[in-house]
Design brief:
By secondary structure, the protein is an alpha+beta fold. The chain is built from 5 helices and 11 strands; from the N terminus they run H-H-E-H-E-E-E-E-E-H-E-E-E-E-H-E. Helix 1 packs parallel to helix 4. The N terminus is likely disordered.
Length: about 240
Amino acid sequence: APAAAAAPAAEPFVSAIPIAEALHAVRRSRLEQHTGEGYGAEGDIFGCLWTFLAEEVIPAGYDCDSCTARAKLEMAAGAEPPKPRQPAVRWYTLARPPLTLTLHLKRFAAAKGRTAKVNGHVAFPLALELSPFCAADSEPPTSLGQLSARQAAGGGAGGGRSRLHTYALTAVVVHQGSMRGGHYIAFVKAVAGWFLVSDTSVASATEAEVLGAQAFLLFYDKLGNGEAGAPEPMDVEVRD
């Protein structure tokens, strides 16, 4: 019997889009979805959020369904097609923004078998816009072409322009001391303004004192339906 013809060798995958270009497109799109502060400066809470949810490049090993389908059509009938692996850009978004946002700053770190407290001020705002980190209402793009089309239409990397998700600062927890011992205090927003709470002691505080605190925990309440204003604060009675 005649020998069966050998299937043609699959061509090695060559990315049509440089990964640096794709990364830049995603990053630019996410910034356009934002209201203007940019990526945030190093050392502020916005920069920390960008770092935590930053884009990640997968150099190789991502199986693209479209490329696999294309390779299958190009292969001889009945031959097992290769699964092309290509670079990709991955990033995380928040699917459902919470009513109360809690941000935990890493103040304790281990190095060389020892645990030490991480000191230093991390700037944070009274009002935080979370929309750059939230998923848009529509489906996210799966190719650079879709991303470019969304950008031209005014959408972002999440699939479309996200609704505003504005939060107001309501409390700040501070750790005083070192790893060997310390004390927790809190700044709390109430009807009459800001208050400093330390065990059973409650005293008035200024916004400058709050914003200058070395925060360990930050609590933000979501404003309703993107409207300007503030969440309903608690009523605190201060006695001499």
